[in-house]
Amino acid sequence: SKAIIVDGYPLPHIEELFSELKGATMFSVIDLASAYHQVPLHEDSRDLAAFITHCHVPYGLASAPAAFQKMMATIFSGLPGIQNYLDDIIVYGRTAAEHNKHLRAVLLRLQHAGLQLNTEKCKFNQKSLRFLGHTISSKGLLPDNDHVTTILDAPAPTFAPALRSFLGLTGWFAKLIPNYATEVEPMQALLKGNVNFEWTSIAQESFNKVKKLIVKTPVLAILDPDLPIIVSTDASDYGV
């Protein structure tokens, strides 16, 4: 992978993806079966992929995510009511009829592209569903229950990599937790510079509080730019 010239095609920004769901009341998620393995690898590249010659794109190839996202963008070009992050696809509509129209168009494009679905993971015509670690409905976003359980079950970190892992999990939902950066600062401080890792009572308090906040997270409404927007800002004693 280090020798590969990576396609610069960008992956979607999660927040921008979610913002496109504003006003939707009906959703479907589509999962592709072994997504990369459905994409033929160019014959000139097959001998370079590994000691075992792959005929389709293998997982772990540095250029695969960008190339796959670019392919999916081409497949769905011009279609309304669809967003995807790699092989995670969500179809939505303001009404059931609009949703179904969008869904038929998406399925036809996938069929035309010769891509197969993992039907066990697909969910159709749902008022609420799980997508990219969140539970999505017409009301907005909540952390997915499985992710919340993982956070609640996490033991107190005893070394830096474990703390980074925990903060990575909670950071995924930072937008849902008021004053998240301030709340996790006692833990973040243990990862700065050449500080020796020592789990303190202050860090433990921060750890416990973040767990409580993730459980009490309110539904985050999806921003509708057509409505009046009120911006509230504050200052912090902690530098970025």
From TrEMBL:
EC top class, as a word: hydrolase
Assigned EC number: 3.1.26.4
Family: Belongs to the beta type-B retroviral polymerase family. HERV class-II K(HML-2) pol subfamily.
Keywords: Multifunctional enzyme
A Pfam family that the UniProt record links to this protein: RVT_1
Any GO molecular function: RNA-DNA hybrid ribonuclease activity
Protein known as: ribonuclease H
Superkingdom field: Eukaryota
Domain Reverse transcriptase: 1-136
Repeat as UniProt keyword: no
UniProt-listed InterPro entries: DNA/RNA_pol_sf (IPR043502), Retrovirus_Pol_polyprotein (IPR050951), Rev_trsase/Diguanyl_cyclase (IPR043128), RT_dom (IPR000477), RT_RNaseH_2 (IPR041577)
The species this protein was found in: Latimeria chalumnae
